[in-house]
Amino acid sequence: MNKEIKLGTKEYLDVAQQTLDKSIRLIAKSIDKGLADTNDDIAMSFSLMTGPILDTSHSLLVLSSMGKMRDCYSLSRIVFDHVLNLGYFGAKGEETVKKALQHYHQKAFRDLDRKIEIKDLAFGIGLKDIDKAPISDKLKEALNYFTSKKGFEIRSWTGDNVFKKVEIIRDYYGKEIGMMLVINLFFIYRHSSEIMHGTLFGSLFARGMTKPESEQPNDEKELKKFHRTRISFILICSILLNYVTLYIINRHYPRQKEMEELAELIKDFRITMYE
């Protein structure tokens, strides 16, 4: 039995970083096996989601090594949202991917003529006479679908909130996958939102000031330990998200060898940390 590595130590953080790095490499190797070349909408959506998941996970490794807790929370939210959408596409099927493509199509068109006006403040850019330009029936359908009765752009492409998405993914892929998303929702989503939106709570949380007074950091050494602990949680959550990513891909486009390797990697990580 291995000696337990204490949470909040540099040793713990190092092992979490190494495990995340290995999981990134495993998934990268897996999707190199022609996922983007598979001729269907689900494979296309998986490929478009997995690239950013791996890219941002790598950025997370860089910032975690620098002790940038606030930025790690922001990046982990990006990873979570991409994994959530990947699972949502897989569970809901090609019609939902087509809906997402409609959303992309009309939004790209709207970007060609866009303006912001707030009282006497206005800024915008647009192509001359774009409103007179002929558009395809496909684009017209997309614009109609994502325009409200009052003529405003409908910004949500799904109509389902984050809790509903997790529920749908859990029902399709099983309780284990659903639980991994719930863990991320619990540890990441709330605090990343506060940090990204620049709230006072988010700023105080990053200083450990939202903990009970007796547990708040008293000096820079204790604050550094608090940051290491929170970054370790973020890395653990990101490792779980990588597992969810490959699990979902494997269910639709088998990559059993890599799936087994990733499962073994996470098992070794758990043994190192907790036994």
UniProtKB/TrEMBL annotation:
Q: Which InterPro entries match?
A: DUF5677
Annotated keywords = Membrane, Transmembrane, Transmembrane helix
Q: Which residues cross the membrane?
A: 231-249
What organism is listed for this UniProt entry?
Zobellia barbeyronii
A Pfam family that this protein carries is DUF5677
Protein name per the record = Uncharacterized protein
